[in-house]
Design goal:
There is one protein chain. By secondary structure, the protein is α/β, with parallel strands linked by helices. It has 4 domains: 1-98 and 129-176 and 382-404, no CATH class; 180-349, Aspartate Aminotransferase, domain 2 (3-Layer(aba) Sandwich), CATH 3.40.640; 411-490 and 530-609, Aspartate Aminotransferase, domain 1, CATH 3.90.1150; 631-750, no CATH class. The strands form 6 sheets. It has a 7-stranded mixed beta sheet with strand order 2-8-7-6-5-3-4, sandwiched between helices. A hairpin with a 7-residue loop joins strand 9 and strand 10. The N and C termini lie far apart (67 Å). 46% of the residues are buried. Bound molecules: pyridoxal-5'-phosphate (PLP).
Amino acid sequence: MQTSSSTDAYGLFSGMDISPQILEAVQKMDTETPPRRMKSSSSLRKHTSRRTPRYPGHLTTTANSSAEDVSTTSDSDRDHDYQTDFTTPATSDIYPEDMQPDDVEDFRDREYPQLKGKTYMDHGGTTLYAKSLVEEFSADLIANLYGNPHSASTPSAIAGHRIDAIRERTLRFFNADPADFDLIFTANATASIKLVIDCFKDHAATSNTPVWYGYHRDAHTSLVGVREATKMHRCFTSDEEVDVWINSGGLGGPRARQIGLFAYPGQSNMTGRRLPLSWPGRIRKSFHKAVTYTLLDAAALATTCPLDLSDPATAPDFVALSFYKIFGFPNIGALIVRKDSAHVLESRKYFGGGTVEMVISINDTWHAKKETSLHDRLEDGTLPFHSIFALDHAMNVHERLYGPNPMKFISHHTAQLGKQLYDSLSGLYHANGTPVCRIYKDEAAVYGDPTMQGATIAFNVQKSDGSLIGFEEVEEAADHRAIYVRSGSLCNPGGVATYLGWSPAEMKAAYASGHRCSNPTQIMLGKATGVVRVSLGAMSTAGDVQILVRFLEDTYVETAVPRLARSSSLPMLNTSAGVIATYQSRQASSAIPPLSSESSTDLNGRDRMWDSSDAPALPTMSPMSPTVDGEKIRAFIPADYVKRRKPWEEEMRKQATTFNYGIPGDLKMREGEDGGSVTKASTPSFRARKFGRSVVNLLKSNRSNVNINFADQRTQQDPMPAPPSSSYAETTTSKRSLERNNFKHNLDSLGL
Ligand SMILES: Cc1ncc(COP(=O)(O)O)c(C=O)c1O
């Protein structure tokens, strides 16, 4: 480890203690040396045994450390680009090329001590950072003086040059040639997506070519939200629909004199299904009427899959991702832009500090944007430069831990574990043959095949009678065993609708009755409103999978239920897109029994209906039979609800026009209609109230057969807002108060 006090080409750093690697970076950028490939030193790849510890145990860095102590490289590392391998031994046995999944066990305790005694299975939320990443990063910051890259001082110039070098290295991490791609650092994948649509909007306004936006049903909320930027949008509900659209040359897409943007996730963050990466190339080739750009949301995909942008002809125009999902740290993201498509982003109107050469603000409104590069024009304000340095360390550590092609190893490793997990979960049965897990998976997806499926599994736990256990309850129970998974609707509205079988009307009704993503009613209308998601990552092990499976087995498998004949199977859940919500059941039963309302985290009492040896072969669990005003009511049928609410809405519309008490006359509430089409006077609370009323209306008009399957399993936290007080309210006091009383009464009887 040593530093250099030598002079660079301009004498800029003369006399300073500068790490040779940084100095080299600066010189390299200044002399416009063509970028070098990432570390390829074969000498470094020679290693002895995979099982030998690869790193010195630990780095001792104190606050007083000199640059000498923590220099970012050694002489032997001089041929590395910006390596800061503080924990790398000089005579290295690193970079094993034949990493095996078992090898993760070797370094996990040392590199991920935060995992001690814990089973972390939410890598889709974030994966974990290695200890040596944090050590290297902190040593770097302690040893080196970095200034704001926008300043001109030497520490600032170093920071600026280092950022450029890391930008280039990051592109190469994705096999993207900097000649063909640019990389804009952002806060996260969402910010990258937002940057794209903001630029498209400005482009549309400047060139008078309106934006058409298409997105896939598996899209994360951050992609779905883009549709609010334009009136012309379409949700593709299946891969086949996309294929048909592409094969037709874009029929049903943007028209002439429009500009198209098609966005989709490389991997569903809900089910882990991987979507075709061939779409961008095919779209580029076959659409002639209107240019349609492609935006790949690689946030979930890139966590455990190598993203290969080596062919600009078939690569997406824009790729959004978050680095914390790949390396655990730093918390920054990027937008990778194909340079041939960069012009669409050039029309952005906003400029921030650092993106302009000159601005006149008094008595004129002139400004000149930076001409150097796209990223210079789009990266507003000071970059998170320390975090970008951490990214450099993250890539080093990744290579050191997971081999010279880390993502390839991680992909293979997690695919194997994913298969093991899937096989284990789908092999859990209650004593009567009912599967313990309803796994939501695409028919075509094959666990173990990384081209089709990532190492993520979405499922719900069910009892032996087929009734669901709340996903939050499962998450909490797991949490008590120090197993960390994720549950809920996962910001994947299309996935929830598709795999859990929710129609728009039902979702709106669920919202009206108090269900919120942030505060969910776990099961409504006999259906789950979310899932349990288990997602594996680079440092997951077979032991993690076993711990989870053991937990599910211990907690939920009912062993004392009558074993049923195994001749027939439960019906497939008939979901809207024909995908399976898998019931690979061995149970004989004609229908999914109704929802059980009892809390089921603790299943100790679960056998009370089943225990007796003379129990019927099939459970005869009675549906909940609530009463309103003492009358028994029949089960709620969603279609009835939708039908019945229409006349009421019509009535509301008329009343709104007559009394004009603030309800927009053109409020659209038809099923399937764009939820964004309400006028600006319509607030969320108003819409919730409106739907709440429609529930009331249904309850009123159907008093003897009120639905009760809005089975809220938790206390209602979000009561419906009171009706507006207005002149209208005064003129209809008795009707409104009656309605209010009824509503309250009905909510009470529903236990809401
Ligand atoms: C597929 C997908 N897209 C987008 C996002 C949003 O990422 P971020 O929150 O980092 O912006 C996520 C986050 O989980 C995701 O999985």
